[in-house]
Amino acid sequence: MPRPRKCRKVCNIPEIQEFRPVREKLYSSVIILSVDEYETIRLIDKEGFSQEECSKFMQIARTTVQTIYDSARKKMAEALVSGYTLKIEGGSFRVCDGKDEQCRCMGCPKHYRNQIGIQREVDGKMRVAIPLEDNKTDVCSV
């Protein structure tokens, strides 16, 4: 019996989930790119993470990241070269809540908000503490 698949951590589900060629005659074939495959492409190619950093972020093994990344690149190449529709959906993943200590991806708006400022509501007013540039222990209260 195979081991159950481990959930992969992703920043968020992409806003645009379908890409199709612009031409009159469209192929009826659709290539499905899973959300975790999309996340590996985003982290490695767009954010510049190494496979090791990507594996730590997604909380899976580096070899698993390599397998997912290879699969995603083949699917994207097939969609681009053959003119197929590419849909992003499905997969085994959980969305980042922004509270993980090891989350260093600034592409995650939830984590970025938690890193930059501590927001607290006091007496009906929103208080934001922003770390100063060089000294991360001193904060500027706004």
Brief descriptors of the model:
three-stranded mixed β-sheet, 8 strands, three-stranded antiparallel β-sheet, globular, 35% helix, alpha/beta, 142 residues
In words, what does this structure look like?
Helix content is about 35%, strand content about 20%. The protein is built from 4 helices and 8 strands. A 3-stranded mixed beta sheet has the order 2-4-3. Helix 1 crosses helix 3 and helix 2 packs across helix 3 (about 60-80). The protein is globular, with a radius of gyration of 19 Å.
* Helix fraction by DSSP (H/I, runs of at least 4): 25-40%
**Count of discrete alpha- or pi-helical segments spanning 4 or more residues:** 4
Q: The biggest beta sheet, please?
A: 3 strands, mixed
Q: Please count the beta strands (DSSP E, at least 2 residues each).
A: 8
User: What is the structural class?
Assistant: alpha/beta
How much β-strand is present in the residues? 15-25%
